[in-house]
UniProtKB/TrEMBL annotation:
Pfam families hit by this protein: DUF4256
InterPro entries referenced in this protein's UniProt entry, alphabetically: DUF4256 (IPR025352)
Record-given protein name: DUF4256 domain-containing protein
Domain of life: Bacteria
Length: 188
C-alpha cells in the first residue's frame, strides 16, 4: 500500500481535531452561528485539508474558522495566531524575488511555502476582515497577495495592525525580515 504524504495518520488527525475544536469553542466570536459538528464532518471528508491545517498549526498559525461561504458550502479557515506565524517568517515574497537576490538569500518564499502547505496568502480585504475578529500582527507584519502590476515593478504588499488601524505597506519583493511572515486561508 502506498502512503499518501498529504494524509495524517489517525492518531495525529484525532489530536489535530481536538486542538481545532478547542480553539473553535474558545473563540466563538470568530464564527458566530456556526457549529463545530458540521465543520468536523467536512474536515473528516477531506483528509488533504486536514493535512494542510496541520501544516498551518505546526508552523505557528493557530488556524480557526473565520467564516462560511453558503454559496459554495465551504468553511473558511485562517491563521489566527496573535503575530505572524513564527514558522513562516524571514521569507521573501515569491520565487522570482528569491532568485533575484544576489546575497543573503532567505530559505524560501511566501508564495511557494503557501502552495506547499495547500493554502493561499490572505488578500488585503481578507486581512482587514481578520482584524475585525481581534488584534493581530501588533508586533509583526504579514505578506498579502499583491496585484500583478505592483509585482511586475518589483514590489510586494504587506500589512500590520498598529494604533488601532490596519496599515498596508510596500517593499521590494526580495526583502525579508524576522518579524514578517504570512497568514494563509483555506476553504474546507
Amino acid at each position: 500500500m502506498t502512503e499518501n504524504k498529504n494524509v495524517l495518520p489517525v492518531e495525529q488527525r484525532e489530536e489535530l481535531l481536538k486542538v481545532l475544536q478547542a480553539r473553535f469553542e474558545k473563540n466563538m466570536n470568530r464564527h458566530e452561528g456556526l457549529e463545530w459538528a458540521k465543520v468536523e464532518v467536512k474536515l473528516n471528508a477531506t483528509p488533504e485539508k486536514l493535512w494542510s491545517l496541520n501544516e498551518m498549526e505546526v508552523t505557528g498559525g493557530e488556524p480557526d474558522v473565520v467564516g462560511y461561504d453558503k454559496e459554495k458550502d465551504e468553511y473558511i479557515f485562517c491563521d489566527c495566531s496573535k503575530e505572524s506565524p513564527k514558522g513562516r517568517r524571514s521569507l521573501c515574497y515569491d520565487l522570482e524575488a528569491l532568485e533575484a537576490r544576489k546575497k543573503h538569500k532567505p530559505e524560501n518564499n511566501a508564495i511557494d511555502v503557501a502552495a506547499a502547505i495547500g493554502i493561499e496568502l490572505l488578500t488585503e480585504e481578507q486581512y482587514r476582515e481578520l482584524q475585525q475578529l481581534g488584534d493581530f500582527d501588533m508586533k509583526s507584519s504579514s505578506w498579502v497577495q499583491t496585484p500583478s502590476d505592483i509585482r511586475e515593478l518589483g514590489g510586494a504588499l504587506f500589512c500590520d495592525y498598529r494604533f488601532g488601524h490596519v496599515f498596508v505597506y510596500h517593499n521590494g519583493a526580495d526583502s525579508y525580515y524576522a518579524a514578517r511572515g504570512f497568514r494563509g486561508s483555506l476553504r474546507v
